Amino acid sequence: MENAMKVFGENVFTESNLKKRVPKSVFKEFQASQLGETELSKESAEVIANAMKDWATKRGATHYCHWFQPLTDLTAEKHESFLEPTGDKDIIYKFSGSSLIKGESDASSFPNGGLRSTFEARGYTVWDTSSYPFIRENKNGVTLYIPTAFISFNGEALDKKVPLLRTMKYINKQSLRILKALGNTEAKHVFNTLGIEQEYFLVNKDLFEARDDLLLTGRTLFGAPAPKGQELSDHYYGKIKEKIINFMSDVDVELWKLGVPAKTRHNEVAPNQFEIAPLFSVANLASDQNQIIMETIEKIALRHGLVALLHEKPFAGVNGSGKHNNWSLSTDDGKNLFSPGKDPKTNKRFLLFVSAVIEAIDRYYPLLRVTTASATNDHRLGGHEAPPAIISIFLGDELTSIFENIALKKKLPVSEMSKLNLGVDVLPTLNTDSGDRNRTSPFAFTGNKFEFRMPGSSSTPATSAAAINATVGKVLKEYADKLEKTQKKDLDKTITEIITNAYKKHGRIIFNGNGYSDEWKKEAEKRGLTNELSSNLALRKHLDSEILQMTEETGMLSKQESIARYNAYAERYVTHLVIESKTLIDIANKDILPAGLKYANLLADNIEKVSKFNKNYAKEQELLLKEVIMNVTNLRKEIKSLEKKIEKVKNEKDLGKKTDLAAMYLATGLESLRVPCDNLEKVVDNSIWALPTYKDLLFKL
């Protein structure tokens, strides 16, 4: 394994690489453009493009591409070579400033929710100066990747990056207003940071290719449970198999070369499930790096004869995969705005920013649910491996007590940092944390950040980060308006009033208990918090007037862009369920039904032979044959039923009604068809059942 210190960032065009290759004035202008303080001039863009081209071509690059994130939760790229013909029939490498800054794409071919049509197809990719260009090496060449935003001809956002960049700018502005009102004139910028934990499964490539459902949908649409699942809790943090540690080591090296600070790797709860987590970064860079992580995991897995599954629920009956987004705010002078400091009881800044989060999440929690809504994540949310679909905040008992003492004039005891003596001489005495962790909470305060645990493993973190930025930024603006009108002598009083009002009016969103319990569902309903289990209904919150007003006011999305996103995501929801339904029907007809019939014939032949000897000896086989025939019959019945339901969904023109039908008919129809499939798998002879089982997929690596 290569030394991380030697290879880290070698395939990234970092600021230090740029600084060495351009005049000081150009570098200074570039840095100002990163902070949104100025626009990069054409002249400087030419100089930077040439420097970038020289760096990349010296490392073997022959092509470049604008790398962007359309509304698919995947990335997109179009490669162009550096080759440029000269007048004497020769060629040179050339890369202009305009090619660096802007590219063009057919926007109508990507999900756009109606913002683009076939006869109005033009879309642009625009260089994001705040994210580092990088090179990717493959067997036969090297390509320079330039992170870009994706917009329409009219400037509407068609990607996941633009709303994040807009809201990072917005929350920076409002946070600085708060800090200035509190007397901090040193901070010039507030950065939104993210630390992202990525979960995934690995399966053998040959087994993956033998399962059309995994190939086409990313999850198993049928499969009887293996005799063993995760009941023994022996996989989580367990010894990593040699084959897997070799894979993980290669992933780490590849990521380090790309400047991704991969930090943590371990077995997750379910068999063949794993997690990787890098160090936190500025949100936009962290989001881009998460895309790099997912793509790298998939690429390296293939080299090891494996396939990485990023679907939220590849296997029924065991834990699904999430993407925990650890969200925070930090200043350019090194202060974490959610760090309680030595005395959180009197830390005005800390309590003010936490109050803003409490109020923001309570007022706009439907938007957070929107950001986690997908047909794939529906299989995970609400199960006992993921938070419920009810949005709540975990603060911990100590921090909650502080708020209650301030807002409700209580006198609850607040513990100081205490010691934890383990009673074993060879183990050191530990300082306890101020609060325990709550893995059942969707949005948990974990010391100096909030961990949003609802997003699915295949999603881009940019979406939820943008929503949190916008909602918290909106509340911070309202706080700043009040503080700026307050005289210095009354500042503490106003801060106390803000904290008090936030807790009194919005404290319902705080829940420190077991989010998995039925009691919480009942309590949440009493508090007026919704439990939107279906993404079909959750997505419609995009169109709520209060949400539309807030996203437009904060600059996250215009009303037209919000409506377009609802249309794009709703269409995707329906399409996903249609593809799954058609896939399962195809497998049931061509693989499972023939296996069931073949086994039934085998049983019938055997019963006939045994009956000639003694009919009593064939009774158990007759019962088994009856069971097989019953499931074959049910299989055909459910296939026909699901086929009709698909047509009904496809024929509906109204998008809202279409998503209702998909949720009502296809999601349930898939489960109904799965039952006879799984029942047949449980009894059909292994020599006849040719499809890889859960035992194969989850325990053979």
3D architecture notes:
- The protein is an alpha+beta fold.
- It starts with a helix and ends with a helix.
- The longest helix has 55 residues, at 559-613.
- Helix 6 (161-181) runs parallel beside helix 13, helix 18 packs parallel to helix 20 and helix 19 (619-651) packs antiparallel against helix 20.
- The protein is built from 21 helices and 19 strands.
- The chain folds into 3 domains: 4-158, Roll (Ubiquitin-like (UB roll)); 167-557, Creatine Kinase, Chain A, domain 2 (2-Layer Sandwich), CATH 3.30.590.10; 573-700, Four Helix Bundle (Hemerythrin (Met), subunit A).
- Strands 9, 10, 11, 12, 13, 14, 15, 18 and 19 form a 9-stranded mixed sheet that branches. Strands 1, 2, 5, 6, 7 and 8 form a 6-stranded mixed sheet that branches.
- It has helices at 4-7, 15-21, 24-34, 42-58, 97-101, 161-181, 205-209, 212-217, 242-257, 283-303, 348-371, 397-407, 461-484, 491-506, 518-527, 535-538, 545-553, 559-613, 619-651, 655-683, 694-699; strands at residues 61-68, 76-81, 83-85, 91-93, 102-106, 122-127, 134-138, 141-152, 190-204, 262-267, 273-278, 281-282, 306-309, 323-331, 393-394, 419-420, 430-431, 443-445, 450-452.
